[in-house]
Amino acid sequence: MIRFCLLGSGSSGNAIYVEADGSKILIDNGLSFRQLESRAQAAGISLAGLKAIFITHEHADHVGGLGVFTRKVPIPVYMTQGTADRLPPGIGRVNDIRFFEAGEEVRLNGMRVGSFSISHDAADPVSFIVEACDTKLGLAADLGHPTDLVRQRLANSHGLILESNYCPDMLRQSSYPPMIRQRIHGRQGHLSNHDASRLLSRVLHDALRVVVLVHISEENNTKELAQSVASRAMNGHAAQLHVAWQDRPTPVFEICA
Ligand SMILES: [Zn+2]
Ligand SMILES: [Zn+2]
Question: How many domains, in total, are found in the chain?
């Protein structure tokens, strides 16, 4: 079984807790130490005994809390060299960085954390799949374009954490400057509700148990819209569909093969 919880999701800070086969990890840490602790407590999980943190890319909403956290809690932090080279100076020293290359897998006891390249406007961004006891959790967020590689790596996941960042109509009518709008919907930006639903319909399979939509824009989307577009793509599939919040944790999800 894999247990996971989105402690925060979106431009104000991302952190995903994953636990399997006796190992606990975080994917990204864009939350302050206090926020991370209080949200973990609210979700009913303990961060004591965390084995490692895995970083997708260097944007502040994914690494903002990393420096303080690793100076208080000495655990390994896995990231690509490109991400390490571009960490924002404001987060301070990050202890015990360990490098991997996109495509490599890190093993922590029975938990396997696989990585794959994604198209996003960062130095060397990756996403992850976590596997343990024949169960698979796939993550696809902060990507501008769902490539064949993304679809291949997400295939057969029992849990899916999927970006559904913006509604194209809301983005078109938003007050954002044209350059920012272009960045968001470009191939290195973020997935729209429709991109997410297309990707979802390509990776749906009978043993998919939970789908959590994440990184929902507060300006250019609503949870209801994201959920209804995804729900249409699921076309009656029995998997649970949830939307992650910016400011509080989701429930703890449990998935099994
Ligand atoms: Zn980003
Ligand atoms: Zn982000």
Answer: 1
